[in-house]
Specification:
With about 160 residues, the protein is α+β, with helices and mostly antiparallel strands. It has four helices and five strands. Helix content is about 30%, strand content about 15%. A hairpin with a 5-residue loop joins strand 1 (about 50-55) and strand 2. The structure holds FE2/S2 (inorganic) cluster.
Length: about 160
Amino acid sequence: MLTASLVLLNNFVRILFFTWEWLRLTMDRRRADRVPKKRTVSTRGVPMPKVTFHHAGTRASVLQVNAGANLMRAAVHDSVPGIVGECGGQAMCATCHVYVREPYLEALGSIGEDEDEMLDCTVTPRDQVRSRLACQITVGPGVTDIEVDVPESQV
Ligand code: FES
């Protein structure tokens, strides 16, 4: 009687184990097949700033970034066409030149001396009002969303 009970218990445990393994594998496969969704809310539940890089024509690269993100770094990280960032954000190459769209200009801080000098060395002509270096723009408090036009050439 005891032996029969142990055999039954053993079989029951095996069935449970195989069912658990089958469920785990099925869930892993489903998770792997799922296309990752772009987050719009940070892990703390705060809405993430949206950065839109407009290219020639109607194309645009839209990124959701963490507050405090640097525009050039975000663009390079996401392989946004037209943003090179050759100097790594030191305001020494002007390969991150962008034209900030009018409604977003006010929220940005003033242009620093280094940025101002470098903006005179851009490949595409400088716009006295809208030209900025993406590496000198940080999104976050005061700059929640921003839209910029990417010049056709940086180098
Ligand atoms: S990355 Fe070089 S000037 Fe912005």
